[in-house]
What we know:
The protein has eleven helices and twelve strands. 21% of the residues are buried. It starts with a helix and ends in a 6-residue tail after the last strand. The strands form three sheets. It has a five-stranded antiparallel sheet with strand order 2-1-5-4-3. Helices cover 56% and strands 18% of the residues. Helix 4 (150-193) runs parallel beside helix 5 (211-267) and helix 7 (318-335) packs parallel to helix 8 (353-369). The protein has three domains: 2-152, Beta-Lactamase (2-Layer Sandwich), CATH 3.30.450; 205-309, Signal transduction histidine kinase, dimerisation/phosphotransfer (DHp) domain (Helix Hairpins); 312-460, Histidine kinase-like ATPase, C-terminal domain (Heat Shock Protein 90). The protein is α+β, with helices and mostly antiparallel strands.
Amino acid sequence: MKRAMIQRFLIIISITLVVFGVISYIVAGRHLLTNTMKSMQQTIDVVDYMLDYSGDIDAQVKELQSEAVGSNTRITILKNDGSVVAETNAEKDTLSNHGDREEVRQAFLEGAGYATRYSDTLQENMLYVTKMTQNGDYMVRLAIPYSGLGDYMRLLLPSLLIGVILLFIVATIVAVRFSDTVTKPLREIAEEMVHIRGDEPEFDFKTYQYEELNIISYTTDQLIAEIKENIDKIEFEKKIRQEFFSNASHELKTPITSVKGYAEILQNNLAKTPEAQEDCIRRIIKETDNMTNLINDILMISKLETKDLSVDISEVRMAPLLSEVAEAIEPIAAQHEVTLHLDCQPIVWNTSASQMEELLTNLMTNAVKYNQPGGDVWTTISSSNDELVIVVRDNGIGISKEEQDRVFERFYRVDKGRSKKMGGTGLGLSIVKHIVGYYDGVVELESEEGKGSTFTVKLPMNQTIS
């Protein structure tokens, strides 16, 4: 990368030099041409002033060339029709009419003209400048050898080569240093990224002068943080799955063992009386119901997690639904000597009636089961800021601070003895959490041991469920 940057930098410098040289050559050439023409026009004015057009013009111009102008300057005197009156470098009689010459035509039209071309007479490139005389009857033309900047370039070439070499040396040094400001930070970033291989990667990215490099450092930090977070999440989910299967196996093993035991009693005729046989059958049915409920809860959680649940969306009137749920759990509440209190605003919401029923049933049943004789359960449903707010509060045994973060885990029971006795699967609050998550809502818990618990569910009512 460093070599490529230096090469590209030098290529750009070379192109810049070439372009600059061409432009400079053109500009300098034009400047030299303009200055030369001005000087020649001034010389023409002097020649015009010194000539006596009534005398021998040819003799006069030859004298002017030798004494005032110089032998390398060709003087030609023309009439307005282009015929040659006098010429310093050739016999005038041998010269043809010059009226078709570019500089002559331009001088006749504009008063002055110029042209550069190869002279067949002198066998070299010449610059011709022609100007009308003061009396307007003649034109004076001067011609000098002219090769543009060619002669000067031969003199300047050594100096230019030295300048170009020095410029290349300076450009190379600048390119190397510039490339170091880019490649060195990239090497440092790459060296830090090697630490990703460790279990606990630590990075020490510096702040560089180029914001783009700082963005790489920042993005790498963010990426590694996300990767680590995802790895932790995967490990956590793996642990949860392992606990889930372990707990599910344990929860199913107990009722299966009971069913098998009671079945063996019946098979071996160990239940002698009809009452004993009826008790075994009743216990088998109860354990079978427990297994059925457990399996159904597990399947529901799995479908909620993958959003593979078939949901029937309809207009649900929350007040009648709450009354139906309360009526269904009233026998359990009476058994535990718990009083239910209901308060629901007249809310109609497009949602799944079965999911709302499941959510309310689990929250209210838990509030009843984990209560004290003579306790109360208050359930309120309201709407606020396009949210459906469900609050289930009890004055029961409460939940300790240590356990509050775990109550939504699968198979977790606050009071394991009481849960077993009441036939709970330990999946009720986990189902609540997954239903709330299905609607992109939130569930909050406030609790204090001996004073009761409050579960608050907030569901966005404008959420589109597909």
